[in-house]
Design goal:
144 residues; alpha/beta; Rossmann fold; five-stranded parallel beta sheet; 5 helices; 16% strand; binds NADP nicotinamide-adenine-dinucleotide phosphate
């Protein structure tokens, strides 16, 4: 199946492993240039190498940024550039009794699960609209 993604640029948040990595791999196999993301440079570099090895010739790069930290998100957005396909995959949860979840934990959930998608979509959408081409998916939105 040709999804017409050759030459398109895709960013997948939280993609050093798990569902995000699998989505990134599928996009790379479809010919998209893929930008991976995770919290550490070492983790991102390892995932980039892994993906390049399984999809020879793929255009794969990575940007390390922790969505808990708004300053790291600003750094990510300033280096990200145009994105044709945005996959708001990153998300975290802990199993804990409601009355034992402190404010800083709630803030972490909001920053990672909600605001990551808001900030990335706000960055990517104007360019997508200007180019008249967009692909997006948001686990945060589908949960809302
Ligand atoms: N697995 C399931 O059964 C399931 C079910 C329903 C929904 N989901 C949702 O699907 C998404 C992916 O789940 P998954 O199971 O594939 O997750 P996972 O295997 O735990 O992978 C999480 C990914 O997110 C990255 N990450 C975690 N916290 C981050 C942060 N603060 N900033 C940047 N990157 C971060 C991790 O990278 P590093 O560790 O390298 O930083 C890793 O690449 C999540 O939104 C999850 O809630 C999963």
């Amino acid at each position: 199946m040709d999804l017409g993604l050759t030459g398109k640029r895709a960013f997948v948040s939280g993609s050093t492993q798990g569902i995000g990595y699998a989505v990134a791999r599928a996009l790379a196999e479809e010919g998209a240039a893929v930008v991976l993301n995770g919290r550490t440079a070492a983790g991102v570099d390892a995932a980039v190498e892994r993906l390049r090895a399984v999809v020879p010739g793929a255009d794969v790069s990575g940007i390390a940024a922790d969505f808990v930290d708004p300053s790291q998100v600003r750094g990510l957005l300033s280096s990200l550039g145009d994105v044709d396909v945005l996959v708001n995959n990153v998300g975290v949860f802990d199993v804990a009794p409601f009355d034992q979840i402190a404010d800083d934990e709630w803030q972490r959930y909001l920053d990672v699960n909600l605001m990551s998608g808001v900030r990335l979509s706000r960055h990517a959408l104007p360019g997508m609209l200007a180019r008249g081409w967009a692909g997006s998916s948001s686990s945060a939105a589908s949960r809302a």
